[in-house]
Amino acid sequence: MKNIPLYEVDQISTLKDMIINSEKKFGDKPAFLKKVPGIDNYVPVTYKQYKKDVDALGTKLIDLGYKDEKIVIIGENRYEWSCSYLAVVNGVGVVVPLDKELPENEIELSVNRAEASLVIFSPKLIDKIDNLYSKLPTVKEYIVMDDESSDDRFVAFGKLLKDGHELLDKGDDRFTSSEIDPEEMKILLFTSGTTDVAKAVMLSHRNICENLMAMCSMTYIDENDVFLSILPIHHTYECTCGFLCPLYRGSTVAYCEGLRHIAKNMAEAKVTIVLGVPLVFESMYKKIWDGIRKAKQEKKVRFAIRLNNFLKILGMDKSKNMFEKIHASFGGHLRLLISGAAAIDPEVAKGFRDLGILFIQGYGLTECAPIVALNRNVDFKDAAAGLPMPGVDIVIDNPDENGIGEIIVKGPNVMLGYYKDEAATKQVIDSKGYFHTGDLGYMDKEKFVYITGRKKNVIVTKNGKNIFPEEIEYLLLKSPYIQEVLVYASDEAGDTIVKANIFPNFEKIEEDFKNGVISSDNVEAIIQSEIKNVNKQLVNYKSIRGFNIRETEFSKTTTRKIKRYVEENKAEND
Questions:
Q1: Helix and strand tally (H, E) in the chain?
Q2: CA atoms within 13 A on the CB side of 283
Q3: How far, in Å, CA of 551 to CA of 290, rounded?
Q4: N or C: which end of the chain has fewer CB within 10 A?
Q5: What is the H or E stretch that residue 218 is in?
Q6: What percent of the chain clears pLDDT 70, i.e. is strictly above it?
Q7: Do 15-33+41-203 and 458-573 have matching folds?
């Protein structure tokens, strides 16, 4: 680990402190850039206006009787969502962000488990809410994120905001004067569902604030940065790092209009930072090189990369000039990509940096608010999840002969526990306060953390050998002909063997083999050849002994993780 000082950050103990400080320091600067119907360009909302709107909404919610109640927010990334979140946690009650992609039965289950009194929802979800209206007995009222409501059952967000501003003008300070206990549960998050039953994670202001301070002390972010918000905001990764972090540092958040509009929105908002998942960045990187090859510029660009990397050694970075067209395709201001939720291919991270765009990744879990380890912009390793966050103690529990063990974590970012589930809490937080992540990994001499897989996913052979499915999946996904894969164990003839469930990249196969007829036998032969190449890189007991080809993508969470428990059960029953 390089001895590089941490960046200075403001000390905060609550999110109320955060927004008060930011409004004082950055009042007239845009906190958000939002799209308004009928207007092509982004419309800015200043820190001053945002704080006023948060105060107004919070005041009106208290006026309506929702003090200390649980309040669900469900919808796409938008200004009203961000107002609602801070209004609830900064003096009203407990916020319960839900995934807008959840099916109706899971929304019903989550709202009822949380015993929520109020639901604030996007008009895009009106059909789901309509169907659930009579199935949520604890809910007293519904607020639709719109200026007006044509349905008497739903209160318009715009009306509440107007009423709240009037109350503030009359001197109502029930919200603005309310005190926040930093240790109290104010955020209730349902995990994304890669296991069969979603758990409800209880977080406090302290959990989030400690994470914000630690993150920003490791990676340089300031008031000149513009974040593009593309990941689902209910997820703690986007919520903490892509919404609250910019507000803490005086940056601006621009709401993306959708994955198809990323490049356009980056140019319009002059975006400098994008938070994403590997799938997003790998797709961006592929498009860059597809464009380079289409223009027959591959040799020229690769030479320019080698030349610029040599110049960097001499202290001269000419990437912005050498790769001007590539930078222009992302708006010309992009400086930093931050990846989370899953491991990125190190070649992609290095590839972006070769083109003059800094790339780092981190590691976290909802239960840790979420960041546990993070690569720094000035100290990173592409294969590593990152360095432990300041104040976070990471231990490799019960390591094997290779130094691999379960990653356990202790620090102020660790959750209060699982909601109304003391037994589940005791299973993951030990008597010394360490949270057992369920992830396996190791630390190198410089304290970088590496993830090797999930503890529950490990395949154990009959002679006691451990196999990490993620390691084999990583190798298979290097093939251009394999789009998605899930590696699993199968007990056959008294032994445990490795099998792979594969969704091929049919488009790439057709493109490369367009002169021939692409039959199922052809596809199988191509995949068999790719597996043979991977097996050459594996020790014998890890070799893939069987595979099946699927015609459709795997079911996934909203952070694009395969729902392993669902797909493994299907594979075992096939």
A1: 20, 26
A2: 11
A3: 25
A4: C
A5: helix 205-218
A6: 96
A7: no
DSSP state of 203: E
> How distant is the alpha carbon of residue 47 from its chain centre?
24
The C-alpha angle with vertex 238 and arms to 387 and 389, in degrees rounded to 5, equals 20
pTM above 0.85, yes or no: yes
Q: Could you tell me the CATH superfamily of domain 15-33+41-203?
A: ANL, N-terminal domain (3.40.50.12780)
Which positions ≥6 away from 494 have C-beta within 8 Å?
A: 462
DSSP assignments along 62-73, one per residue: HHTT-TT-EEEE
| Cβ–Cβ < 8 Å for 142, 152 | no
Return d(Cα 438, Cα 457) in angstroms, integer.
10
Residue with tokens 């509440």: 160
What CATH number matches the domain at 277-455, 2.60.120.560, 3.30.750.24, 3.50.50.100, 3.40.50.12780?
Answer: 3.40.50.12780
Beta bridge partners of 491: 496
- 458-573: CATH superfamily: ANL, C-terminal domain (3.30.300.30)
Check residue 13 and give its pLDDT: 98
Chain segment 481-493, per-residue pLDDT in tens? 999 999 988 887 6
> What does the alpha-carbon distance between residue 139 and residue 191 come to, in Å, rounded to a whole number?
22
Cis peptide upstream of residue 278 (ω within 30 degrees of 0):
no
E strands in 134-221: 141-144, 154-156, 185-190, 200-204
**Spatial distance between the Cα atoms of 245 and 196, rounded to a whole number of angstroms:** 31
The Cβ of residue 235 has, within 10 Å, a number of other Cβ atoms equal to 24
Domain positions in the chain are: 15-33+41-203, 277-455, 458-573
Q: What is the number of alpha carbons within 13 Å of residue 327 lying toward its C-beta? A: 20
Res 194 pLDDT > 50: no
At 453, which amino acid appears? Answer: G
Q: Tell me the C-alpha to C-alpha distance, in Å, between residue 394 and each of 207, 229, 237, 338, 565.
A: 16, 30, 19, 21, 27
pLDDT, one tens digit per residue, over 255-314 is 999 888 999 999 999 999 999 998 889 889 988 999 999 899 999 999 999 999 999 899
CA-nearest of 463, 464, 508, 453 to 486 is 453
